[in-house]
Amino acid sequence: MESDFGIPRELSELQKKRAEYHPELPPCLQGTTVRVEFGDSTTCADPSSAHVISQAFPNTFGQPLAHFLRATAKVPDAQIITEHPPLRVGVVFCGRQSPGGHNVVWGLYNAIKLHNLDSVLLGFVGGTEGLFAQRTLEITEEVLATYKNQGGFDLLGRTVDQIRTTEQVKAALTSCQDLKLDGLVIIGGVTSNSDAAQLAETFAEAKCSTKVVGVPVTLNGDLKNQFVETNVGFDTVCRVNSQLISNVCIDALSAQKYYYFIRLMGRKASHVALECALQSHPNMLILGEEVALSKLTIFDITKHICDAVQARAEKDKYHGVVLIPEGLVESIPELYALLQEIHGLRNQGILTENISSHLSPWASALFEFLPPFIRKQLLLHPESDDSAQLSQIETEKLLAQLVETEMNRRMNEGLYKGKKFNAICHFFGYQARGSLPSKFDCDYAYVLGHICYHILAAGLNGYMATVTNLKHPVNKWRCGAAPPTAMMTVKRYWGGPGAIPIGKPAIHPAAVDLKGKVYELLRQKASSFLMDDLYRNPGPLQFEGPGADAKTYTLCVEDQDYMGRIKKLQEYLDKVKSIVKPGCSHDVLKAALSSMASVTEVLSVMSAPSFGNHQPL
Amino acid sequence: MESDFGIPRELSELQKKRAEYHPELPPCLQGTTVRVEFGDSTTCADPSSAHVISQAFPNTFGQPLAHFLRATAKVPDAQIITEHPPLRVGVVFCGRQSPGGHNVVWGLYNAIKLHNLDSVLLGFVGGTEGLFAQRTLEITEEVLATYKNQGGFDLLGRTVDQIRTTEQVKAALTSCQDLKLDGLVIIGGVTSNSDAAQLAETFAEAKCSTKVVGVPVTLNGDLKNQFVETNVGFDTVCRVNSQLISNVCIDALSAQKYYYFIRLMGRKASHVALECALQSHPNMLILGEEVALSKLTIFDITKHICDAVQARAEKDKYHGVVLIPEGLVESIPELYALLQEIHGLRNQGILTENISSHLSPWASALFEFLPPFIRKQLLLHPESDDSAQLSQIETEKLLAQLVETEMNRRMNEGLYKGKKFNAICHFFGYQARGSLPSKFDCDYAYVLGHICYHILAAGLNGYMATVTNLKHPVNKWRCGAAPPTAMMTVKRYWGGPGAIPIGKPAIHPAAVDLKGKVYELLRQKASSFLMDDLYRNPGPLQFEGPGADAKTYTLCVEDQDYMGRIKKLQEYLDKVKSIVKPGCSHDVLKAALSSMASVTEVLSVMSAPSFGNHQPL
């Protein structure tokens, strides 16, 4: 066993204080008795994918939602779990470290022990590699002592971050059987939860008695859908990054001579960058989703930034801060096409050093135009999910260089008469994801850990722990479980003329919704952010006093509570029934029939597989 | 006037709360009456420089120390300042932004208005350029409202950061005369305070009635000497950087696959890096001062890191964190020599693009060996103080690349059998210096601002505001003023055979004292830091609760209180006098004479100009 995992750590004064913090539980999870109510069976957001997903997941697609309620809740169909036999549960970190992950383990441990002291929680040491190799560490109060409310995944570590190949899945199955596990909890993001869903299906097929549960833990905040409002770690990471961005904004304003180009970790989607922009008010945010929608080329973006620099120079401003999500590079059409071509050549077995000579003339011209550092980075081996190594591609440097070149050209041609453009580049990511988790992330993760236990106690397989109504205080949170298969979509690939192979169903990262309220909030302020330097400093993450209980804009602005709205619909349907009882007038019945015919027709059309290409919510 | 300065800002919840915080004053500054006690006249730490400095500063060298005491203090020689005519004072930010700078302005404003409501405080807008161009903003309660306890220098801005050329000094003189200033307060670090001292001398020579006062504000923490214990901003910057470093440490430990090379802002000296290492316990710190002392080449350092990587690999550890002060590049002998040669060629008027072809064969060989990005950075124009642009030279990338190459070589030759070495590089600086200042920096800066007023009220010219005994609570702080000329040293340059021109006296950055207690603390722990991953997370800067009142190790560990010890000496001398009174025995007198003869001889030898090359304390 590696000596570094699970050993007690020396804590700073603040860490000690944080270790003493005990998250609150929502009312439904307080006490030892919890009711489970099952909702309707689930489908997926894109009707055209339902068939494909149901074929791939015959055992786990269409399972009903589960809601956890107080023992005293007056819900006729809810069942109380009365039996609490000892459980053996395994838990594994299977994704990038995200602040709060440790609290999932802690919450799970507490819930397990609360219901039966003979239950055992085994942590897999060294992430998925530990799972395959059956390297475990029994979680105890002593082991947890210095990891409660602490950042990182260093209690257990993480490694390959995937359970996908036949060998990997087989190894996981063997481990669960050998260790006689009743449950396996997988902590991770989009990819890990897709893997968890696959594992649940495989286990069900193989009649393995281990139930698989996923937990949405990813700083990217891109595991968002009808059932999942936000992810553990997103709040902390956005707050740490916003602190740094706003420090840089104040720095820019003090010296008035630099443009800072800041790239932010967050994978393909731009949630982190959008939230940070709303918290710190930088001058510009180049949103990947906007670029993709408008099909802006790298030259369009450069021109856009240069025009802004020039407009600011006319107001005698020679400083600014530009945010760039790391996924931007894949949103720029020509760079995406180039990356795809490189990826295709690599799949044909062409060595990295020979790839550039095999590119098509068009791609080759673009490749040669790019500065050497970017060329090298584009050629890096792709990630386990086949996407480019976004964290290693310095898009911020590329843009800063292109802007500088263009500004110099404008200056030489007399089109720009201001001072010389100077840029400084940053990449913020690694320095945020090991942070002490915010109170919100501590609470959210701890509650999710508890829910995992109740999912297993209810004997459910192939579920993800969920908490909704998160923008409200903990005592209003709603706890439940949703099958990840209901969050899946199917990507269709256009491989060549006529060929439209269908991808494997998976949970895909949710893009920033350009029709959503969060984006709308940014759009309203974008032009004043650009010109007026309304920099705002949320300050360092606080654990006491003002700001300690703040939540992200992303969470607070959106009308989430999908579950609540589903319940509201049920109420309407019940009301129609109660009004249109036998004995009601002809007119009332006629009106009801006519209205409902129209409603059902509209909904049928909208839900038909042929209706548009739905984006996951 | 630029529209960006002094305008009210939108504050976050935390910023608002911080704006309400009111720093405490030490007892001596409370109330409206303050006594001034003058100590002995000062000299400088290096006796061999005294003559040169006294010649360059005939009006301001040798001035006595001033101590500010309570009105009720029982000190016979102290004088009470009773007259408080209205003063016109100017204040200018003249150095890099450092958290807490705004509070100097606030403290000064409050002290000025407390003693005479007709006094006026003018802020120079746009730093030194504003000073030369007489662009001012009258500081009022309204102007200050959103800048109290806030980071950055954006209330007034900063620009050229020097007042040195004849034209600049003349412009400053004209401004002070035109604006009828009684005092000019210069906020900055080592270079700015040297400039302030020069300005004071010039003003005295020119019979200009404006008194010049300096304030030690620099995140580098390198304005350290007998009189100055620490600088405004150092505490905050070390704490923000330590937060990020420890986040990265936890990240490294969670994933166990990367070595992080982190370069820290802090100019030539390594104080910031040393303090951050003590706060966050990374695996390695390559201290510039150690490298310079041991004359380690870039290859020695590379080998040193590679050996550490290999030793860790033998314990199955493939991660780690290495701190690198930005000044390291100038501490490595061959890189320093190369930089000097480049600098010399530039001074001969050789264009940047031609410099490489004019290098000596030795320097040229080294230059060609270096990766292109470093070559380009070494050729950047030097800073205003003639040193290399340390913030732009990516030494961390150079080292990471050299280590990778060497580890690959060892692997290929079978000397290293571990996993492939992977590095990720960071530069932390800009993201820290705009931070909300810590409580310590808020208090220290505010008190210094008050002291500036009392220096001016006492009619002193050519002084720096000082607070000592800082490691104790504010009510134990001692306030005073010391002439910057007493902090100066003279550098001797060896320009060629026989030629030893003497540099201008100046306050030079204090290097980390390799015989000091702070360094000793690191040395004791260095090997366990290296191997045992004792990462410690001080967490984000807190304003309430645990950690909010923490101070730097650098401040707390050292026996500072030089002023206290000077007083202690006086007590010994008085005691000898009181014991050896006329009428004492022959033996007592004999013993006293013999002892004192020996003491005076030792001290005379040690204080002779020929005795060693003294480092400033």
TrEMBL record, chains A, B:
GO terms for biological process: photosynthesis; response to glucose. Residues 88-452 form the Phosphofructokinase domain. Allosterically activated by fructose 2,6-bisphosphate. GO terms for molecular function: 6-phosphofructokinase activity; ATP binding; diphosphate-fructose-6-phosphate 1-phosphotransferase activity; metal ion binding. Keywords: Allosteric enzyme, Cytoplasm, Glycolysis, Kinase, Magnesium, Metal-binding, Transferase. It is found in: Cytoplasm. Pathway: Carbohydrate degradation; glycolysis; D-glyceraldehyde 3-phosphate and glycerone phosphate from D-glucose: step 3/4. One of its GO terms (cellular component) is cytosol. The keyword Metal-binding applies. Tetramer of two alpha (regulatory) and two beta (catalytic) chains. Belongs to the phosphofructokinase type A (PFKA) family. PPi-dependent PFK group II subfamily. Clade 'Long' sub-subfamily. NCBIfam families: PFKA_PPi, PRK07085.1. This is Pyrophosphate--fructose 6-phosphate 1-phosphotransferase subunit alpha. The lineage of its organism: Eukaryota, Viridiplantae, Streptophyta, Embryophyta, Tracheophyta. The gene is PFP-ALPHA.
